[in-house]
Amino acid sequence: MERNLAQIALFAAMIAALGLVPQITLAFGVPITAQSMGVMLAGAVLGAWRGAAATALFLVLVALGLPLLSGGRGGLGIFVSPTAGFALGFPVAAFVTGLVVERLRLRPAGLVAGLGAVLGGIVVLYALGAIGLSLVLGKTLPEAFMLTAVFVPGDLLKAAITGMLVQALARARPQTLAWYRRGPANGAA
């Protein structure tokens, strides 16, 4: 139990730290940030429930006013801003990423983590982000999806980095990946 709580807190802190990476804010108010990679990593390393818990803890801290989002943003106002759909989508994206790595029995581990990051951290997160953009900016859903298209190349890179980091963890410390079990039939990391 203590280890789970420590891992959840550690990943919430990592997502916050990734907000310190310099950002570019786009004209429609949504920044390009490294924090979405933290969401991908939370799900890919911790699994569905603990990954979602780490991102939910991060959002609770943001809601309390801690300036943890990229650009030093925090407080309840972010939940009615153009970034609201993306922020509220963090736990869902981490959960889906984790669900993919837990249920898909592919090897190598980096491949399944990268695939989970694409499905959860891009497809699901963009869907929720586009809904938020549509509501806040008064755009149609197709218009909002077009606005999110600018993020695709960078987020594909983040998904690939997530896969590489998980692959390295699977080789060096497979016990850190609760969902990953190395066995005789699947001895390749």
Automatic annotation (TrEMBL):
Transmembrane residue ranges: 39-64, 76-101, 113-137
Keywords noted in UniProt: Cell membrane, Membrane, Transmembrane, Transmembrane helix, Transport
InterPro entries to which the protein is assigned, alphabetical: BioY
Primary location: membrane
Gene3D superfamilies reported for this sequence: 1.10.1760.20
Keyword Cell membrane in annotation: yes
Membrane topology: Multi-pass membrane protein
Subcellular location: Cell membrane
The UniProt record lists the keyword Amino-acid biosynthesis: no
Family assignment from sequence similarity: Belongs to the BioY family.
Listed name of the protein: Biotin transporter
Native species: Paracoccus spongiarum
Lineage of producing organism: Bacteria, Pseudomonadati, Pseudomonadota, Alphaproteobacteria, Rhodobacterales
